[in-house]
Structure formats: structure tokens, C-alpha cells
Amino acid sequence: MPTETSPYLLLAVFLVAALFFSVTPLLAAWLWARRYSPRKPGPEKNAIYECGLKSKGDAWVQFRSEYYLYAIIFLIFDVETIFLLPFAVAFTGLPVGAFIAMIAFLLLLVEGLVWAWRKGILTWA
Amino acid sequence: MDEGLRNELTKQGIFTTKLSDLYNWGRKNSVWPLQFGLACCAIEMISASMARYDLARFGAEVFRPSPRQADLMIVAGTVTKKMAPQVVRLFNQMPEPKYVIAMGACAISGGPFKQGYNVLKGIDRYIPVDVHIPGCPPRPEALLHAFMTLQKKIDAQLLTGPNRPRHLNADAPGEFPVPEFGEHDLVPPSNPNVWQPPVPKTVTEC
To answer: Which of A37, A45, A53 is the closest to B92 by Cβ?
Structure first.
């Protein structure tokens, strides 16, 4: 018996099985809820805050765009740490070119810090 | 199905069950408690969930930090009147089916602090408690026993009919009124649909 089938047939079978396994429990749960277990929403249950205290406002809170400064400063120190550690570990085996490249990179990061310092955002307002 | 026929089938190696039995079997073996403790009973609750007493044997080791994912509220400790509204609100935020174990003398009656002006005399004044555990504090074995009692209760619940539990009954409320801070006490002092004060015994003289 020739078994000349498309290699994609297996994938199709796999897809059908995956859909069956994922959709069937959801469908069964939905049918079960419709038949036996009624939904009981309420103002307390639908509240956004779930630590026992009364909820205030809604979940769509807007943050001030000025926080980008903190993100930038965090990034400076974060990137610095990530690259400084392997640099320090491999320091004795590094050629001069790599050393100069690393110093240039560090200076670029320090320049960002200096910029933030000059802008006055390091002082607590 | 006839009990005799079921026995006969079991002897032949054919397992039969009811839909409600299957449903309850699944529910009673995965009761996830809400991770919250109020006082010293919580230490015993933590101990019960750890390796020595091992609450995981009953399928209840998954303490959920959010009421949205919890099935069981273990009220472990003294409920002050300041805390009572929060406890009721947390219970309201749990999805059905939900159960309550009142653990320790304080949670069931106020315990040694019953005379205190700020202590609630039992959480069953506001929410329906399924299992009460006495003791001050109860040992972890007592909590395990309460768990087994709750599992028996879940196992006996009906799927249909007038005696079906609250979560299967569309008319039964899923939320309970949250008490407010009044001038002298919580308002209302208790939920009459959940708790009725016991009638004091009167001795009639003849």
C-alpha cells in the first residue's frame, strides 16, 4: 500500500487536535455555567481593587509623561552595570583597542548622566 | 442507577458515577484557600500548609493572594470591628462556589477578647460560615479536620433541586452587605439573613 501523503497532513492533524484540546474545556465550562451555575456579578465583585478596601476611580489611570527622565537615568546605570561586569572580569586579557572602545562607551553613558545633572533633575524638588 | 446494579458492575470492573459526584469530587480535591491571616491562628494555618502537616494532601496547598482565584476563606484570628468590613468585602470578591472556615475561638465568637469594645463577636454575623473550629489557637490537626469536614460537606452537595447550594441557585445572593462604621458599633451589627442571635433561655417561675 503506497503511503504517499503530504508532509503537511501531519501538521493539519496536529492543528485539529490542538484546537480540540483547547476549545473543548472552554466550551464544556461555558455549557456547564449555562446549565447549572448562574453568573453572579455585583458591584463589590466587579470592583477593580481586590485588597479588601473600597475601590476608588477606575483602572485606566494615566501617568505623567515627565517620568521618562527616571527611565533614562535608570537605563544609564542599568546598561553600565551590565557591560562593566564582563569588562572588569576580562580586563587583564583585553587588547588596547577594546579598552579604548569600552572607555568611549562609558564616556557616552557618563555624558547622559552629566546631561541629567545639568538639567537639575538629580536634586530633590 | 440502582445500587445493586452499580455494585454488580463494579465487581465486573466497570466504574459508574453520577455527574454531580464527579463534579463534587473535582471540587473537593482542589479547594484553594485565600492567603490571608488576621492573628496568631494564622501561624497555625501556615504550619498546616507546610511540610510537617502538609495541607497539599487535600489539594489545598495553593494559597491564592487574590480573592478572584480563591475558593475558601480561612478566617484565622481575631476579627476587629475595624477589619470586619474588609473581610466581608474580600468574601464578596471571591467567585462562587466559595466556603468559609472560621478558625479559632476569636473568629467563631470573639474568644478571649469577647469583652473588648472593638472585637467582632464572631465572623458568622456577616458571612455564612461552613465550618467552625474551636481552640485558642487550634492545632494544625484541627484545621486538617475542618478541611476534611468541608470536603464531606462539598461531597454531599446536590447539583439540582430545591436544596442545591447557593452557588447553583440563581436567586441566592452571592454578595453579602458590607457593614459600615457607625457611631458606636458596626452598622448593621449583624446580617439577619446569615445570623440570628440565640434566644436567651428564660426560667419561668411557678
So the answer is: A45
Predicted TM-score (pTM) of the model is 0.77
- Length in residues, chain B: 206
DSSP string, B1-48: --HHHHHHHHHTT-----HHHHHHHHHHT--PBB----STHHHHHHHH
Q: How far is CA B183 from CA B5, B119, B187, B188, in A?
A: 65, 15, 9, 11
Q: Which helix (H) or strand (E) holds B85?
A: helix B84-93
Which of chain B's residues have a Cβ under 8 Å away from the Cβ of A52?
A: 85-87, 89-90
Give the separation between CA B9 and CA B7, rounded to whole angstroms: 5
B31-158: CATH architecture: 3-Layer(aba) Sandwich (3.40)
Contact B63, B156 (CB under 8 A): no
Look up the ipTM and state it.
0.72
**pLDDT tens for residues B2-45?**
888 888 888 988 888 888 899 999 999 999 999 989 989 999 99
Q: How far apart are the first and last CA of chain A?
A: 83
Break chain B into its structural domains and give their ranges. 31-158
Mutate to test the interface with A, among B64, B91, B92, B98 (most CBs of A within 10 A): B92
Q: A31-85, pLDDT tens digit by residue?
A: 998 888 888 888 888 888 888 888 888 888 888 887 888 888 888 889 888 888 9
Q: Quick one: pLDDT band at residue A2, thresholds 50, 70, 90?
A: low
